């Protein structure tokens, strides 16, 4: 499609599959890193939204100025795009100097599986096997 309007309508009418939309994120991030102004603006706005959410929570919890972990998760953030993560870290530091930004190390399913093991009363060995199945990324 050559027009943004056509893409927006196709998304609304569910003519574009969600898998196809998710596949656009890596392309957008790469295009932003290459300097495309529109892509950089979109990624910058995403960073601003994330910083707004995290900064608001930190302020409401009264943790401004304290060392507080901010763990980023989700498909786009776990891609660990250096530009996006850098902008988030830099902008969040301006609002919450003690914030320590990191990216989640395992997929969300691992947490659900851990809860399931707890609920089932599984042995510590089962937990170790599950943890071994999800080694941290390099």
Largest sheet descriptor: 2 strands, parallel
* Number of H/I helices: 7
Residue stretches low in confidence (pLDDT < 50, at least 5 long) are none
Rounded to the nearest angstrom, the distance between the terminal CA atoms is 37 Å
- Average predicted local confidence, pLDDT: 90
Computed structural class: mainly alpha
Q: Specify the helix fraction band.
A: 55-70%
Number of strands: 2
Placed side by side, the strands forming the largest sheet appear as 1-2
Q: What is the overall silhouette?
A: globular
Rg over C-alpha atoms, rounded to the nearest angstrom: 19 Å
Q: Could you tell me the strand content as a percent range?
A: 5-15%
Core attributes:
138 residues; single chain; two-stranded parallel ribbon; mainly alpha; globular
Which helices and strands occur, and which strands form pairs?
Elements: H1 4-12, H2 18-22, H3 24-33, H4 37-60, E1 68-72, H5 82-95, E2 99-103, H6 108-120, H7 124-133
Parallel strand pairs: 1-2
Q: What does the model show?
A:
With 138 residues, the protein is mainly α. Helix content is 62%, strand content 7%. The protein is built from seven helices and two strands; from the N terminus they run H-H-H-H-E-H-E-H-H. Strands 1-2 form a two-stranded parallel ribbon. Helix 5 links the parallel strand 1 and strand 2. The two termini are 37 Å apart. The relative contact order is 0.10.
Structure summarized in a few sentences:
The chain has helices at about 5-10, 20, 25-35, 35-60, 80-95, 110-120, 125-135, and strands spanning about 70, 100-105.
